[in-house]
What we know:
The chain contains 28 helices and 15 strands. It is an alpha/beta fold and 1009 residues long. The strands form 3 sheets. Strands 1, 2, 3, 4, 5, 6, 9, 10, 14 and 15 form a 10-stranded mixed sheet that branches. It has a 3-stranded antiparallel sheet with strand order 11-13-12. Strands 7-8 form a two-stranded antiparallel sheet.
Amino acid sequence: xxxxxxxxxxxxxxxxxxxxxxxxxxxxxxxxxxxxxxxxxxxxxxxxxxxxxxxxxxxxxxxxxxxxxxxxxxxxxxxxxxxxxxxxxxxxxxxxxxxxxxxxxxxxxxxxxxxxxxxxxxxxxxxxxxxxxxxxxxxxxxxxxxxxxxxxxxxxxxxxxxxxxxxxxxxxxxxxxxxxxxxxxxxxxxxxxxxxxxxxxxxxxxxxxxxxxxxxxxxxxxxxxxxxxxxxxxxxxxxxxxxxxxxxxxxxxxxxxxxxxxxxxxxxxxxxxxxxxxxxxxxxxxxxxxxxxxxxxxxxxxxxxxxxxxxxxxxxxxxxxxxxxxxxxxxxxxxxxxxxxxxxxxxxxxxxxxxxxxxxxxxxxxxxxxxxxxxxxxxxxxxxxxxxxxxxxxxxxxxxxxxxxxxxxxxxxxxxxxxxxxxxxxxxxxxxxxxxxxxxxxxxxxxxxxxxxxxxxxxxxxxxxxxxxxxxxxxxxxxxxxxxxxxxxxxxxxxxxxxxxxxxxxxxxxxxxxxxxxxxxxxxxxxxxxxxxxxxxxxxxxxxxxxxxxxxxxxxxxxxxxxxxxxxxxxxxxxxxxxxxxxxxxxxxxxxxxxxxxxxxxxxxxxxxxxxxxxxxxxxxxxxxxxxxxxxxxxxxxxxxxxxxxxxxxxxxxxxxxxxxxxxxxxxxxxxxxxxxxxxxxxxxxxxxxxxxxxxxxxxxxxxxxxxxxxxxxxxxxxxxxxxxxxxxxxxxxxxxxxxxxxxxxxxxxxxxxxxxxxxxxxxxxxxxxxxxxxxxxxxxxxxxxxxxxxxxxxxxxxxxxxxxxxxxxxxxxxxxxxxxxxxxxxxxxxxxxxxxxxxxxxxxxxxxxxxxxxxxxxxxxxxxxxxxxxxxxxxxxxxxxxxxxxxxxxxxxxxxxxxxxxxxxxxxxxxxxxxxxxxxxxxxxxxxxxxxxxxxxxxxxxxxxxxxxxxxxxxxxxxxxxxxxxxxxxxxxxxxxxxxxxxxxxxxxxxxxxxxxxxxxxxxxxxx
Length: 1009
């Protein structure tokens, strides 16, 4: 039985193995999610196998033991060996499924570990990307705030540069502005065309720097802008959005009404002038007619808009007086073509609204010589039309445009010419618009103070600038650079230190961001590569259903990770784009732009220091130097006075020299705003008695204080910060007048400074303004305004090409006004015929003829001077000889033979003036000009020619009779050797003069007919 116990024991072990295999089967089912697998199949086989040998062994042993007891004596070792093998196979079959499952689990776990690694790395990459994104945003914000700080500092610099009276107090504080009172007049400032846009913007900025524009209904300003270029209009509108200027700014924007069809419909005359199918609409293309035509198409809407705003302005201010200032360039198409018509329309609108004629000033910028011939022709055509209206409009009762018009030239040998023009023009217009009338205060003179009345009489300004004419102007100012100095100390240098520190921090942050970005790019690239590899491996890996579901989830998640890294909200590409934008040269909020702005601001600070130490020579201002800006306490600027400041700096002599120039003539105060022939500016001409006699008789206005100047200069205004009586004193500037005149309000509140009432500071500003009349008045083509010569040449060249009508504009749509003003018949003609007639008129019109009263009288005065010289020479000789003969007849002996000889020599040197061609030329010109002054002057010359001829003719006969009397005297002196010798000298002189008179009389007949 002992040997039979072994199978039984092993059978029980098999049963246990069966249970384990069954448990394994269930476990595999649960773990794999599938009943039938290779592993579970082996478990089933194992169960069947183990059941087979275990159960069969037990049954076999029982049967065998009853039937063959002898078998029980089999060797135990052998049984152990047999059943060990059987059990071993069961155990192996039990282990194999587990091993197979474990292998597949290891494969799955390897993939899962790789996935988890990718997940961790991607989470870190996304966190790094988010952090880098935030850093780049902070950098952008830092750049933005730094640029805003620079912009604010630059804005304050613009204010300081424009306004010497401002004291800058800090980057976040409002500057201390000078106090002034705006006269009770509505101001309408009109910019037309691209050039007008720049001038209007410059003037607005100057007014802002003065604190003159306020967001109040009673603030008496209206700014108007018209241009065919809608981008210019939009830029100007956006520039002032949200500022105090916006409610006072009207920018034309009805471009939808400006179509080729509407332009042709409104301007039927175009067919006679312009044959092209396309009419310039969004720009005039440097054609003046196009500027006029486009304006005519929207004229009604434009004027209605302006009238509405004018009515609101008048209602708010209660003022009836209006001053209109029109700013434009004469060389373009829009402004040059439409400015006359727009001005006349605005002038009429104001008169209809207020019942009072506005005073209208115009400013036209003339193109440079190196600009195109088209620009030159436009400017000359505009000047032609302007002169004709100025000279003839008022006499015909027309709504002529301007009371006075200033020409400004860009042909200046200075840096930043446009900036200089804009600044000088803005200061000039502001001075014209805020001049006050002096009124004595209590006591006498400056010791007790001088007050200024807040008055502004438009008629006074008209009187200043009569006659209506073209002018240019000279404006000069001297001041201590308090505004620049306060800006440098309180804004420029502190802000520069701040922005340089910020720039370095931003640069370092960008370097760190670049390193982080490169590391992130490397990480993300590795993650994406690993995702692709793992995804491929997972796709090829066969998994149990339970593992497959998790594998699919991991694969789906990896696609999501890849998507987030590649195309998510924050990606390497987007971060790289953000970084590149920060480093882009064209990005407004990029580091290169910031670096450029910091560099420019650094240069601005450096330039300001250089300016303070050695102010450049300027044609519009004299600035006292500040050699050591660091040594001046800017806190003193609000209480200091100019004289005290320059005394501290040792600049008294420079100040006196500047004041001497300031109160002197034109040449002492720099160039004007146009290029003038200074040899013809206020140069005395024709000072002889005959010349002055002729001028006084025919145009006495040309003679000022007994002298004729070419051309005359009018002091439009002399605006100074001291009492006018001090400037006019012979000993100005003296120590006393300078000291008293420059006391600041802070130290002497009773003292009122200058034309601007109650100005806070006396750091500046002495000003002088001259008005200079233009055009030639001496010699053919000898222009005072030298720029006119190249304008005229270009005009004449284009006229030869027979398209000069494209460069004119006036009266193309107003045939009746043209006919009434010029007398040229166009009524009853077709639009095409009429416009051709108008072109012919402008083409042949010479604007100099309207100045013939000046240059014609002066040229004829020179003719008269020559003729009078002949007449006077013969009259003086005849008078002296007759006196000598009469004295000798009465027994006298003292004959003035030397004097008579000198008079004879004078006559011998005389020549008949060959001036008939000049006289005829003036007469021919006057047949067009129809000047009564020249008619009378020509008649005077004709009478003088006749008179001189009569003198010459009668001189021969008179001297013949004188010789007869001389013979009688000689007969009575026989024997007196000395007397006879003198009488012979006298006879020879008379014969010579008689012969000269006869010759000149014949030459007169030949020369004058």
